[in-house]
Design brief:
By secondary structure, the chain is α/β, with parallel strands linked by helices. It is about 30% helix and about 20% strand. The chain is globular, with a radius of gyration of 15 Å.
Length: about 140
């Protein structure tokens, strides 16, 4: 997931490492390395982030780009919703559904309906077959 964030925001976040010191950590790029400072701060989470940690830090950001693999979303829709709910304060949420074969798939549409009813300010976008690319 980090290569996708790096590509989208021209950031340089470190790739995940198999270390206990790297789990549930957050890197923040404030955009100062651009000639004209980037107007948005970007954060990347390493490892599994707990709901408690998410609730503590979500007020630091004006919006969220959350990306999830389509297979994870269809199997764990309630978990995804549980993570989106704390983000629902007045901010934007962009949910990118990755590695999708067919956005009209019934399971995907059911998951999207559930997400939209639980999180009205969540905009949903599709990124087909990201896993097949280098980003």
């Amino acid at each position: 997931k980090t290569p996708l964030v790096n590509a989208l925001f021209e950031a340089n976040f470190e790739q995940s490492m198999n270390s206990k010191y790297f789990r549930e950590t957050i890197d923040v790029d404030f955009g100062y390395h651009f000639v004209e400072r980037r107007s948005v701060n970007v954060a990347d989470v390493h490892g599994d982030l707990s709901i408690e940690t998410l609730k503590r830090i979500c007020q630091l950001f004006n919006g969220f780009l959350v990306h999830v693999q389509s297979t994870y979303l269809t199997s764990n829709t309630s978990d995804v919703i549980q993570f989106l709910r704390p983000l629902s304060h007045p901010s934007y949420i962009l949910l990118l559904i990755r590695d999708l074969d067919d956005e009209d798939d019934e399971e995907i549409q059911t998951a999207i309906t559930s997400i939209r009813s639980a999180c009205s300010n969540c905009q949903i976008f599709f990124l087909p077959k990201v896993a097949d690319k280098n980003t």
